[in-house]
Specification:
Radius of gyration: 27 Å
Number of helices: 2
Oligomer: single chain
Shape: rod-shaped
Largest sheet: none
Structural class: mainly alpha
Order of helices and strands: HH
Distance between the termini: 106 Å
Number of strands: 0
Strand content: under 5%
Helix content: over 70%
Length: about 90
């Protein structure tokens, strides 16, 4: 007689990535996906497709961050040039 009915089968946990609103969260999701593929809880083809999409998201977020930094650096450079011009005009007036 088999006692298979006595054992409860635990359903595999559903793979969830969580929030993907910033660069750090996307990087965490990439790591989670790779670990899930490595331990066999996520099919490698599905995981590869998820990683591909996350890689694209990561590139977009990095580009956005770099553009914001470039704008900020331009603002700082403009302010520094204006301050330098004000100082040279002040010296010329004395």
């Amino acid at each position: 007689m088999s006692k298979d009915s006595d054992q409860t089968a635990t359903a595999p946990r559903k793979f969830k990535l969580g929030h993907l609103g910033n660069l750090n969260q996307v990087i965490v999701a990439l790591g989670k996906t790779i670990r899930a593929m490595a331990d066999g809880s996520l099919d490698s083809q599905v995981g590869a497709r998820i990683c591909n999409g996350l890689g694209i998201m990561r590139a977009c977020l990095e580009t956005q961050t770099m553009e914001r930094l470039e704008e900020r650096m331009d603002e700082i450079a403009d302010r520094a040039m204006a301050d330098a011009a004000d100082r040279t005009q002040g010296v010329a007036l004395q």
